[in-house]
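Q: Give me a backbone?
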Amino acid sequence: MIRLKMKGKGFALSPYKNFISLIDCLMKLVSGGSVAQNGSVPHTSWLTSLTGDVAGLVLNKKWESSLLGPIEVWPPALLSTLSVCFGSPFPIAIYWGPEFVLLYNDGYRPIAADKHPLCFGLSGKEVWAEIWESIQDDFADVWDRGESVRRPDALLLMRRRGFVEECYFDYTLSPIRNDQGQVAGIFNAVLETTASVLRTRRSKLVSDLSQAGQSAETVDDLLKTFETVLAEHRLDAPFALVCTNVPAGRSNGWAVNATSGVATGESLQSLWTLIEQTELQGADRSLASLHLPEGLSFVAPDGPWPERVGIAMVAKLETGSAAPRDTYLVIGISPRLDLNDDYRQLTESIATALSRCWQKIAHEELKARSIVALRDREERLRFALQAPGRSVKIPRGWSLQTPPSDDRRLS
């Protein structure tokens, strides 16, 4: 439990389970009498007792040349809100004044990522220039009209780690009022939900593929299902394909079984070369990453993002086929997401789902061929017995009766 206290009052919160209650609690602390009255400035000695990385920024930054000016002239409402902000383990930011000067606590650092520490004390419009068009209306609602705003799982395309990143946040913006009741700043409590959003989205991809694939009766049906499902999930798989290293005599020794989002007419020879030269990893040596050659883009023009896909994951599929050939799954990695363990797990899960469905079909096809072969042998034996003047030795265990319709002897 987290317990926040102000003026002898306590508020107990279960982390992350009631985000709205957290915000209400914190804003009550800010507006519930902690702001100094009669224009007096709250004591600032508490600032010297702060610990953590952000505390060092507060104490060591030359505020005299900043948009806020020296700490000694900071308004009471700002100091009171900062005391709540720095005392909370939750990610909290404060945007102060008409320039929306950004201040935040240690919990907010992962959100700022590589923008930290230079962004501390700068205008939020400058810090978040790449997303300001998406959030400026929310800021206006708070600043101009004093309204509170909440955006659950909001998509914000941030550039905080050297590339434009697909990020999701559950955030609120609430007004901070001064002694005159005017909006003087914005209180921003935020939780990054990117991992949760991606997990839900990717689980749906694998579930859709597994469920639809189980109903496929032929490999062609399964591959069409693969194309349909992957086409609906191009944020995680900008392009995808299934290919087979076929026996000599076929063009380039490779055959494309199914594609999703692959540019029409794109030469795949370089991809085949990469697969052949790559040492697959993992316990069963079935997974590897491929760095795609510069100048080649395998993604169709209608791809989800304008950036080039430079990395792909390749996984070997276990198809259950007796033919001496290897079949591979290739998944393009989104240029706006990290290639991390979760992404590798997604590739493995897609490969596993596809392999299981493929093996099921292969088993059913083998079973059907065995039934046909057995019926054919029995028919030939029956024909031989009916021929005049011929004796035929019946193998032990054979029956000349028509096999049952459900072919129980082969199940």
Summary: Residues 105 and 194 are 20 Å apart (CA to CA). Residues 197-364 form a domain with the Beta-Lactamase fold (CATH 3.30.450.40). The chain has three domains: 17-192, 197-364, 377-410. The first helix runs from residue 19 to 31.
